[in-house]
């Protein structure tokens, strides 16, 4: 597929990229794509978020959880039930030139790259380095996005002592891995440790009872514990870990799912079925609770409008949360109720942000709901075959140049 690196008039350029999920103005191109996995079928669909149509679909081995890299160049499909991880080139790449950024847009493609293992689970990517965790194995694997895009990933493995449901966080020459419960590895991990790629431990273990949930925000990476958060930072060669205890003003409870802010450094965690907690480690009072009207289904941060996050609740409402004020600022009814009773993995809505659109999957009605992020009003729907479930958004704006 010819890459978009040619300057042209707005009309000619728009015609030339009509099939790529992008629009242009002069030498500026905006492209947004949604990658949507099915709840039951081994399929990932590529949706043009600008025009609201399907661009492509890829067959994989099983239903997938989707993760995008920080660069947005790669989408990883983790297929836990099939024991496989597939990599998809998003077809959208950006190049920073200081005073402006260039964009390349081409077809998305399923790469000839597949990792296999027992019970692949948590996926973490930081600064082009990937950590893939396997619940059924005693080693985690680490590789680079660059090598994946070249079709030649060369994973480094690091021992995690025993198979358990944990997580690994990649750094330059080190990794942070969870420590299994020594009495029963099927229970939640009890802490974290820093390991070198040579397999040697660095420093002492750090306690984190009931560890579950992790996210990155800015230079910090957080792991959720029953006692608070472990905050990982790196100012030198070796990552450092410190404990941030829950405030005594909080009611009894803890977080087990985390997301990290973009543009502003903060975290959001669940805190009971119908509350979320806003966490700002830089503040003396780091934790603020936000009450939801009903139980939480899914939540994400807005990477463009840094002071907002979005929560879908089981009554079918989408809520805009002002993370600076610490309150729900707007609510919008979108779907039928999706009860949180039943199995944890039943098909329920998921949320992503694609530029000026908030996108919510509606798996039982085979559609995506589009919400204007500025007005917070519904702006459209996209029909999607099957049960659209997990999704990630990739895109943005950049300039194109004539290299001739």
TrEMBL record:
<protein>
    <submittedName>
        <fullName>Uncharacterized protein</fullName>
    </submittedName>
</protein>
<dbReference type="InterPro" id="IPR047697">
    <property type="entry name" value="AztD-like"/>
</dbReference>
<feature type="signal peptide">
    <location>
        <begin position="1"/>
        <end position="24"/>
    </location>
</feature>
<dbReference type="InterPro" id="IPR011044">
    <property type="entry name" value="Quino_amine_DH_bsu"/>
</dbReference>
<dbReference type="InterPro" id="IPR015943">
    <property type="entry name" value="WD40/YVTN_repeat-like_dom_sf"/>
</dbReference>
<keyword id="KW-0732">Signal</keyword>
């Amino acid at each position: 597929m010819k890459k978009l690196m040619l300057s042209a008039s707005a009309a000619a350029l728009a015609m030339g990229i009509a099939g790529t999920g992008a629009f242009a103005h002069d030498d500026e191109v905006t492209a947004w794509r949604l990658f949507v996995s099915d709840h039951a079928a081994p399929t990932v669909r590529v949706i043009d978020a600008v025009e609201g149509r399907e661009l492509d679909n890829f067959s994989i081995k099983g239903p997938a959880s989707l993760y995008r890299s920080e660069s947005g160049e790669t989408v990883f499909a983790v297929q836990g039930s099939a024991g496989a991880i597939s990599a998809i080139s998003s077809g959208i790449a950006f190049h920073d030139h200081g005073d402006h950024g260039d964009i390349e847009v081409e077809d998305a493609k399923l790469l000839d790259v597949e990792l296999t293992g027992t019970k692949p689970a948590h996926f973490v990517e930081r600064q082009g380095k990937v950590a893939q965790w396997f619940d059924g194995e005693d080693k985690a694997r680490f590789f680079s996005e660059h090598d994946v895009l070249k079709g030649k990933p060369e994973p480094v493995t690091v021992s995690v002592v025993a198979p358990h449901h944990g997580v690994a966080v990649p750094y330059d020459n080190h990794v942070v891995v969870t420590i299994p419960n020594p009495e029963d590895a099927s229970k939640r991990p009890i802490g974290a440790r820093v390991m070198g790629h040579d397999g040697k431990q660095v420093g002492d273990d750090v306690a984190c009872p009931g560890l579950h949930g992790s996210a990155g925000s800015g230079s910090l990476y957080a792991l959720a514990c029953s006692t608070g958060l472990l905050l990982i930072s790196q100012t030198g060669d070796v990552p450092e870990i410190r404990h941030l205890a829950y405030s005594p003003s909080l009611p009894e409870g803890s977080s087990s799912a985390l997301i990290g802010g973009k543009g502003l450094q903060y975290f959001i965690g669940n805190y009971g079925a119908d509350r979320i907690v806003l966490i700002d480690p830089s503040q003396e009072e780091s934790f603020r609770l936000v009450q939801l009207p009903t139980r939480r289904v899914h939540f994400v941060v807005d990477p463009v409008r840094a002071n907002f996050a979005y929560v879908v609740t089981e009554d079918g409402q989408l809520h805009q949360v002002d993370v600076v004020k610490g309150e729900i600022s707007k609510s919008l009814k979108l779907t039928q109720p999706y009860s949180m009773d039943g199995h944890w993995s039943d098909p329920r809505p998921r949320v992503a942000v694609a530029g000026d659109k908030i996108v919510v999957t509606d798996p039982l009605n085979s559609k995506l709901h589009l919400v204007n992020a500025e007005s917070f009003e519904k702006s459209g729907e996209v029909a999607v075959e099957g049960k659209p479930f997990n999704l990630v958004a990739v895109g943005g704006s950049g300039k194109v140049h004539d290299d001739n």
